[in-house]
Amino acid sequence: MTVMPDPPFSRMLELMQLAEQNGFEYGWTYDSHILWQESYALLPLVADKTEKIKLGHCVTNPGIRDPTITASWYATMQDLSGGRMVMGIGRGDSSRRVVGLKPVRVAEFERRLRMMKDLMNGRTVQWNEKELTLEWAKGQPEIEMHVAGYGPKALAVAGRVGDGVIIQLADPQIIQWIMETARTAAKEEGRDPDTLKCIVCAPSVISDDLAHARDQVRWFPAMVSNHVMDLVERYGFDSEIPAALTDYVKARKFYDYKDHSRVGAKHGEFVTDEICDRFCVLGSPDQAVEKLQELESIGVDQFDLYLMTEGQHRELEVYGKEIIPRFAGVAA
């Protein structure tokens, strides 16, 4: 599950602990230091008050902080947490755009990721014409790096460098295209494409009132549309990217980052019921299980519940009692 680093911190900690109690294996948070509190300061406190749940960002980026600092922070946290850290990383959306920066360019993104993956895992790197090693990090359990992306170039980086791909939507057709693109790049790099993990992230509302559930999640496809607009600007609407991913943004009018990931955001009003259903996991427990089983059948390894809806405690408890026990091979 992913919870925003919104104040008060006590809420974030309580939800992380409740997730752990209900069988969730991963506790993720956002990284956008202007919109919310500094999550790099909060995760050590979560690690101190939890025992088993794995922790990390979904996602951080290599461009808002010096990448050697990010790598050292993760290595330090791997020690403090008892080996429970996992990194999710992308090119930078809200974290960078809000302060007037664009997402990190793809070639630089890959260069930084290669360095960070080795450095945080105790391996020697060449950086700024210096040889760097975190000597104190040698021998620690490997920290996995999962890479977020939608377009062919970013997905190729995920395939060449990452341990997995982070996909912010739950549409099976789009997921299959994304994983095929990343795994092709992994194979071309000489890596085993079958070891590349598939992590799907999306909000879920368990309710028989579908109209209410859809209104709770319209912000999510709107958030995804920020990345899709970048793709359309580069590739147009007629490209190798599936129309199932790009067509819906034709109706988009604007996006306001002050309501980023907020229920009721005005910029989500263009999102149709069909897109809500495709991108999210909605309905009764049985309907949610059916959707998650479909995702499992196409190779999804982890479903990351985006907990930015109302009734967060209830969602965690319903998943813990009625949904997670029905799955053996998929992490939550």
Helices and strands, with pairings:
Blueprint: E1 2-3, H1 9-21, E2 26-29, H2 39-48, E3 54-57, H3 67-80, E4 86-89, H4 94-97, H5 106-120, E5 125-127, E6 130-132, E7 144-148, H6 152-161, E8 164-167, H7 172-188, E9 197-206, H8 210-217, H9 219-235, H10 243-246, H11 273-279, E10 281-283, H12 285-297, E11 302-306, H13 312-323
Parallel strand pairs: 1-2, 2-3, 4-7, 7-8, 8-9, 9-10, 9-11
Antiparallel strand pairs: 5-6
Q: Explain this structure to me?
A:
This protein has 332 residues and is α/β, with parallel strands linked by helices. It has a single domain (2-209, 281-326), classed as Luciferase-like domain (TIM Barrel). 43% of the residues lie in helices and 14% in strands. It is built from 13 helices and 11 strands. Strands 4, 7, 8, 9, 10 and 11 form a 6-stranded parallel β-sheet that branches. Strands 1-2-3 form a 3-stranded parallel β-sheet, covered by helices on one side. Helix 1 (9-21) packs parallel to helix 13 (312-323) and helix 12 crosses helix 13 (312-323).
List keywords for this structure.
332 residues; alpha/beta; TIM Barrel; six-stranded parallel beta sheet; three-stranded parallel beta sheet; 43% helix; globular
In brief, what are we looking at here?
The protein is built from 13 helices and eleven strands. It is an alpha/beta fold and 332 residues long. It has one domain: Alpha-Beta Barrel (TIM Barrel).
CATH class type: Alpha Beta
Q: Tell me, what's the shape?
A: globular
Order of helices and strands: EHEHEHEHHEEEHEHEHHHHEHEH
Biggest beta sheet attributes: 6 strands, parallel
- The number of strands is 11
Give the quaternary arrangement of the chains.
single chain
Q: Helical segment tally? A: 13
CATH topology: TIM Barrel
The termini sit apart by: 7 Å
